[in-house]
Amino acid sequence: MAKRDAPLRWDRKMQQRLARGEAAALGELYDRFASLVHGLAHRVLDDERAADRITRDVFAHVWEHPDAYDPRQGPLRTWIATLTHRFAVQRLRATETAALVRGGPGTAEELETKVRHASVAARADYIVQSMPAPLRAALELAYFQRRDYRQTAADLGVTEDEARRRLRLGLQLLSTARDAGTAPHPPGAPPEYGGAA
Fold it and tell me: Selecting from 1.10.1740.10, 1.10.10.10, 1.10.240.10, 3.40.50.720, what CATH number does the domain 11-130 have?
């Protein structure tokens, strides 16, 4: 149980440090989560500069509103991913809507489909990054290296039953990416993380 409490304790302490205005806390938080934020934003927006802007906006929001995070609702990582998703989807909708207004190609329905697909992809990325390493390793072998469960078992040094179990659990987690519609709602995330942005 102490192992599970350690990340939550870090999350609470980080929130308290941010609330006190400790710039070092923001730097530590940035070092820990910047690649997650940038990766999710880039997955939604498919634009490096826009992802950079979202990354700055997310950390500015965290700095200005540390009390908006409630440790009882889930990990700090999930809250930051929620903010990233919301900001990125808002930007995607705004830029695509502006293009439609200027007479660009597409329709409002196509815009929503694009947002939905980008959100599912971002959610899948988040799930893969967040899943336990043994599940992630099995999925990476099966997907990227096209290994079947027998080869995966041999590569990982586990039984075939264990390889099948890891692959099944990993795929079950990934299947939830589509279930939530437009939001990357990882297992254990607070309810607001599953709603549409």
Answer: 1.10.1740.10
Separation CA 17–CA 169 (nearest Å): 37
Are the C-beta atoms of residues 182 and 196 closer than 8 Å to each other? Answer: yes
Amino acid symbol at 158: V
Q: Which of 181, 183, 150, 191 is nearest to 167 (CA)?
A: 150
Consecutive H or E run containing 102: none
* HSE-up (13 A, CA, CB side) for residue 75: 16
Dist CA 150 CA 5 (whole Å) = 36
pLDDT of residue 1: 43
Question: In terms of Cα–Cα distance, which of 38, 42, 41 is closest to 30?
Answer: 38
Residues 6+ apart with CB under 8 A from 162: 153, 156
142 vs 151: CA distance, rounded Å = 9
CA distance 79 to 126: 12
171: enclosing H helix or E strand: helix 160-179
The whole-number mean pLDDT for each consecutive block of 10 residues of the chain, a chain of 197 residues, reads 66 93 96 94 93 97 94 88 92 86 79 83 81 88 87 94 92 78 41 36
**Per-residue confidence (pLDDT) for residue 26, from 0 to 100:** 96
Question: Look-up: residue for tokens 């959100």?
Answer: 119
